[in-house]
């Protein structure tokens, strides 16, 4: 079977959904706004200064280590390029959260966390979207998507394309290397592990489910919004463990304050009472603690 046509790389950005006009009187709206403003903010379990100090120490450590002669490289993932692994070692900051309870539920479905500062370079990002066969039935449908000028979108495959064109390992490896971000119609997500292999999901490019249909039809507005959300989010697959590692950004493309905001965004998605400890690290640096629970 022949693959679906390539989606043109867009220059424009998705438009934000228009807010629904409220019928509430202006006086009441102003009163509610003031009440919201005067409400005390939820106390953070880790203060920004502590996170910033730890990140600063990590940046200094990585800078020192990068100036040393390179040592023998460790075993590389078959799905990763050498350049990708070097970038991850030297540039990516991770939040390591240890929880009090062990997660015993197996899943391959990534969870998304919207970040204050996106760490992906949208000028270079290559996004591939995999959709249900019935959503792409004609070139007119593809043209309507292309006319949206969605930034970063370079290819659309149907699930049938994936099943027929990427049966062998080398083809899957090539697909993995051709794109930076994989998004998949939530309706066919459960088919992908068999179609692409579980090794694909263990890489740093595990396909992320998105909701792009309305009344079982493709929604162009949802597609725009979901793509924008994905680009500015970080993802992780909940492990069968009480140790969760989530990328917060790159120390090379975000400043310390921006990294602090992203770390706080990640921490805020967890129940404070379930957290045992929190660390920040790169794959090259030691893990520096920024929080320990009083009660284990």
Briefly, what is this?
With 296 residues, this protein is α/β, with parallel strands linked by helices.
Please, could you describe this protein's structure?
It is a single chain. The chain has 296 residues and is an alpha/beta fold. It has two domains: 80-119 and 232-296, Ribulose 1,5 Bisphosphate Carboxylase/Oxygenase (2-Layer Sandwich), CATH 3.30.190; 121-230, 3-Layer(aba) Sandwich (Rossmann fold), CATH 3.40.50.790. It contains ten helices and twelve strands. It has helices at residues 26-38, 48-66, 82-91, 139-146, 159-165, 169-178, 192-196, 198-201, 220-231, 256-268, and strands spanning 92-99, 111-114, 127-131, 153-158, 181-185, 208-210, 213-214, 217-218, 233-236, 243-250, 275-281, 288-292. The strands form four sheets. It has a four-stranded antiparallel β-sheet with strand order 10-1-11-12. Helix 2 (48-66) packs across helix 10 (256-268). It is globular. The protein starts with 25 loop residues before the first helix and ends with a strand. The model is unreliable at 1-42 (pLDDT under 50).
